[in-house]
Amino acid sequence: MKQVHFGLIYLILLGVSCKNNDNTDSSTGILDQPKDSAHACMQVPQRFGMSADSSIAFGGDTSYRNMVLIPAGSFDMGGDNDQADKDEYPKHKVTVDSFYMDITEVTNAQFAAFVKATGYITTAERKPNWEEIKKTLPPGTPKPADSLLVAASLVFKQTNGPVNLNDYSQWWSWVEGANWRKPQGPGSSIKGKDDFPVVHVSWDDAMAYCKWAGKRLPTEAEWEYAARGGRINQIYPWGNQAVNQGVPKTNSWEGNFPYYNEQKDGFLKYAPVMSFTCNGFGLFDMAGNVWEWCSDWYHAEYYKTLANKNSVNPKGPEKSFDSQDPYTPKRVLRGGSFLCNDAYCSGYRVARRMKSSPDTGLEHTGFRCVKDIR
């Protein structure tokens, strides 16, 4: 699914849905987007008008613990099959230097250590600032009730049956008090889930963690190269076998979204890291489980600028652009989530690109880090 950001949250609160001209779903953010739909029709504001906490200092860990060396190499970046969206083309040659990458998504235990050391307060734990929000909304957009402008995040709720897939409020709830410590809101906790991926994490939160850990977020090119695990022009980290064929290969939505999950993979929502086989580079969960932030700005036309040449260590575009949502800059996310399936989304494809505003986090958003070789 595409990443949900606050603009979508806001419109959900107002009871607004979104359709494109052919009645397919056009979601913004990591609400896992239907594979044939256009990108983003919701307007997406920033919550705070600020970036990662500038007071965060390096925690002193210079090791490569729980990381694996990704060898330097070249690959063809971009769509591999007919599920690919237009922003995955043209396929183009990319070369990356070697780097280290976390073998798993950042876990609750790792993020808790960061928060304990720094006192960091995540996006979801802070009250939104309406003065900042309205700067990136269409003129005349009404202010929501003060009771809705609270520290909160979106929580997935399974429905009792088929619903209109253009109405995101059917399966997402704006839950006051939902955050990384309480993924489903008050009454929930991460007790006993140290090895689960941390969720409800914004790009700003991920950047703050990276600063403390002495790491960084992967570029979009590094992420895709690593996800491919040395395979050439194949669809998934494991090859070309369809996601629901054979033994479970990732944590995804198996069945009819959003009401029936067969749970052949053993999980309704996110799973502990390392629950499935690693790819050729020794990386776990490069498909499914939770979406992962990359460092790059999202630009719908970016790949066109890289056509017919070999790009070396590309860092992404200088600015963000999404023609269907010109109001808000967005960052890239990769990898899909536990809500993806082929009928509604193909987010676990290695070439699948998603995007969201940097202050967005929800129940299926996480990250992993990389580190340069000293």
Q: What would your notes on this structure say?
A:
With about 375 residues, the chain is an alpha+beta fold. Helix content is about 10%, strand content about 15%. The chain is built from 5 helices and 14 strands. The strands form 5 sheets. The chain has a 4-stranded mixed beta sheet with strand order 12-11-9-13, covered by helices on one side. Strands 1-4-14 form a 3-stranded antiparallel beta sheet, with no helix packed on it. A 3-stranded mixed beta sheet has the order 2-3-10, with helices on one face. Strand 7 (about 255) and strand 8 (about 260) form a beta hairpin. The protein is globular and about 50 Å long. The model is unreliable at about 1-10 and about 10-45 (pLDDT under 50).
How are the elements arranged and paired?
Layout (H helix, E strand, L loop, with lengths): L5 H8 L53 E4 L2 E5 L14 E5 L2 E4 L5 H11 L11 H4 L18 E5 L15 E5 L26 H11 L6 H9 L26 E2 L3 E2 L29 E7 L12 E3 L18 E4 L19 E3 L8 E2 L3 E2 L3
Parallel strand pairs: 3-10, 9-13
Antiparallel strand pairs: 1-4, 2-3, 4-14, 5-6, 7-8, 9-11, 11-12
Q: What would you say about this model in short?
A:
The protein has 374 residues and is α+β, with helices and mostly antiparallel strands.
The Rg value, from CA coordinates, equals 19 Å
Can you count the helices?
A: 5
Low-confidence runs: 1-8, 10-45
Distance between the termini: 36 Å
In N-to-C order, the SSE pattern is: HEEEEHHEEHHEEEEEEEE
Oligomer: single chain
Looking across the biggest beta sheet, what order are the strands in?
A: 12-11-9-13
The helix content, as a percent range, equals 10-25%
Shape, please? globular
Q: Decide which structural class fits the backbone.
A: alpha+beta
Strand content: 5-15%
Task: Profile the largest sheet.
Answer: 4 strands, mixed
